[in-house]
Design goal:
mainly alpha, two-stranded antiparallel ribbon, 49% helix, single chain, 2 strands
């Protein structure tokens, strides 16, 4: 967050006003509103450091929030395995119930090499409805293992 933005949001939360200067005019606007903020730590969250250090937000700004919750995503290979299995099971069920065979009839004509995302979704749904594909245990194991590897190595990022 830029320093100017920090100053502005601090003023809005502390004094419930914002000072605006445009075209030589200076005015103060009322900002009676709710502020709900979310942030990710810079790198990995370090429980030995303060919240200010982890979020790079100043103490005075953090003190303006009525509630501050720290949600930690702790890596747990056993739980990650359970979650990935659940997601795979739910994904298969959800796709089976989404669209009808009629949606596939509007796919792009033959000869077009790139499919749009909606077209690809309709095709996958059509194949699932018509042919009832099932993931093998080996395929589920590969997908689950990949998910767990991503979690363990921390290579997937929330942004």
């Amino acid at each position: 967050m830029r320093e100017h933005d920090r100053t502005t949001i601090h003023e809005a939360m502390e004094q419930q006003t914002i000072s605006v200067a445009k075209a030589g005019l200076v005015t103060t606007l009322s900002t009676r509103t709710t502020v709900f903020g979310a942030t990710n730590p810079k790198g990995q969250y370090d429980s030995n450091e303060s919240l200010s250090v982890n979020t790079t937000l100043s103490g005075p700004l953090l003190s303006r929030f009525d509630i501050v919750l720290v949600l930690l995503d702790k890596k747990n290979p056993k739980l990650d395995g359970i979650i990935s299995s659940h997601i795979l099971a739910q994904s298969t069920k959800a796709e089976e119930n989404k669209a009808s065979d009629a949606a596939v009839k509007s796919t792009q004509p033959l000869g077009i090499k790139e499919w749009t995302l909606p077209c690809l979704r309709r095709y996958i749904h059509y194949v699932k409805q018509r042919f009832k594909p099932v993931l093998t245990k080996e395929a589920e194991s590969v997908i689950s293992g990949y998910y767990q590897l991503q979690r363990r190595d921390g290579t997937h990022n929330a942004g």
